[in-house]
Amino acid sequence: MPSITLLGLGPGDPQLITGEARAILERCDVVYLRTSQHPAVAALPPERLRTFDHLYQDAVDFADVYRHIAEQIVAMAEQGEDVTYAVPGHPLVGEASSALILQRAKEKGIPVRVIAGVSFVESVLAKLATHLDNPAEADLLQGWQICDALELAQAHHPPLNPDRPALIAQVYSRLVASDVKLTLMNQYPPRHPIFIVRETESAPRRVPLHELDHSDAFDHLTSVCVPPVSSASGFEALQELVAHLRAPEGCPWDREQTHESLRHTLLEETYEVLHAIDTGDMRALREELGDLLLNVVMQVQIATEGEVFRMTDVIADVIAKLIRRHPHVFGEARAHNAEQVLAQWHALKQRERAAATETASALDGIAPTLPALAQAQKMARRAEQAGFRWQTHEERLRKVREELEEVIHAQNAAHRAEEFGDLIFTIANWADGYGVDIETASRNANLKFARRFRRLESLVRAQGRELADLPPEALQQLWQQAKSADDHAARP
């Protein structure tokens, strides 16, 4: 039965090819190389070698390179050929093509043999160990995360824990280095120090991350080492801290908390985030988002301890939902503008709710604890999406006037309170017709009133008087001054 042999050529020096690998290479009629750009290749008989170097120029994107290699290697084995595929380093360390071949071969029932090689990791560690100037950087020599440069270049966010060192293999060109840099900068600061390690150079080069692609000194044996950040900042570190606080040796207050006891804090932190957004205070927003995230992690930790669900479940659910509701990104659907995306999103949500139960309502899923104005607008919007809608702004306004009249002619306090509620609901619906977020508009109005009222208080204090002692006419005059000053300050 034909088989596939995955063979490691070591980090570069031909003397580092293992005896087992050398014996196989000597008796093979043909050896397929992922790349000929490797010093050990010079020690092999050239007439037996076939290379996939051309794919790096011809492929549509980086992912195509490894996919095409895997398809061709497995296809040759399916046709009855015993295939030897040789790669730099170790076949299973930072080598994405080998992983694809293993997967496809298993699907086809083709046996695979792995011939170990000295990986690039050993060589990189040796260079780092002898050229680190700062003793604190000894952390670079343990806890490695290893990834392939081409896979990282295709990502938008690095799949790395920033609290542990990372080693990126096969940064073989300046173009790849540029894409890797952009992905890393979604997590690491631009001036974060990194090391560029080449097999042909005795010492690693230290540069800030934003200068990773500032030279052409890259080849297939170039690796990039990314040290951990200076202080704990990974999501895993936050989960560990919260789990520690909840542990028997942790904090008594944190151990006593429940989903219900943290409810008020969660709501309060959400409003703190909204306030930071409303005021444009980015420093406060950063802090308040951290407090909100802490509440989320605490809630999940409590659920974990109760064997209800874990963080992996929460994240898996939201990833699946995002992919499911973005068929125009991850599927065959098309959406050319935000309006089409929203229409598609709402249609998908309605189908999901309908599939969940025969008694599903368009209003299902609206949180009962939402602020009243936000809840009213969301209910009105859901009803409209289901077909219960006003056709024009005039019809909405007519309904507002109708509800206003009912408030005016209410017969008693209870009736008047009910009609005020109807009026506010209708105003929320009216605002939605114009695309106005009524909750945000109301919060902005509150902020505006607070600014103007404080200006009014300042004007009164400047006169050496008390607000309560001023006649209505004087108050109105000062109020207009406060409004005018506020409007002037608000102009760009």
| Number of β-strand runs | 10
CATH architecture of the largest domain: 3-Layer(aba) Sandwich
Global shape: elongated
Instruction: State Rg.
Output: 32 Å
* Helical coverage, percent range: 40-55%
Brief digest:
The protein has 492 residues and is α/β, with parallel strands linked by helices. 53% of the residues lie in helices and 9% in strands.
How would you describe what is shown here?
- This protein is an alpha/beta fold and 492 residues long.
- The chain has five domains: 4-118, Tetrapyrrole methylase, N-terminal domain (Cobalt-precorrin-4 Transmethylase, domain 1, 3-Layer(aba) Sandwich); 121-226, Tetrapyrrole methylase, C-terminal domain (Methyltransferase, Cobalt-precorrin-4 Transmethylase, Domain 2, 2-Layer Sandwich); 235-324, Helix Hairpins (Orthogonal Bundle), CATH 1.10.287; 370-436, Orthogonal Bundle (Helix Hairpins); 439-490, no CATH class.
- Helix content is 53%, strand content 9%.
- It has helices spanning 19-27, 55-58, 62-78, 96-108, 120-131, 149-154, 174-184, 235-246, 252-256, 263-279, 282-305, 311-324, 327-330, 338-356, 372-385, 393-408, 413-433, 438-462, 472-490, and strands spanning 4-8, 31-33, 49-51, 83-87, 112-115, 145-148, 166-169, 193-198, 205-208, 222-226.
- Strands 3-2-4-1-5 form a five-stranded parallel β-sheet, with helices on both faces. A five-stranded mixed β-sheet has the order 6-7-10-8-9.
- β6, α6 (149-154) and β7 form a beta-alpha-beta unit.
- α3 runs parallel beside α4 (96-108), α10 (263-279) packs antiparallel against α11 (282-305) and α18 packs across α19 (472-490).
- The chain is elongated and about 105 Å long.
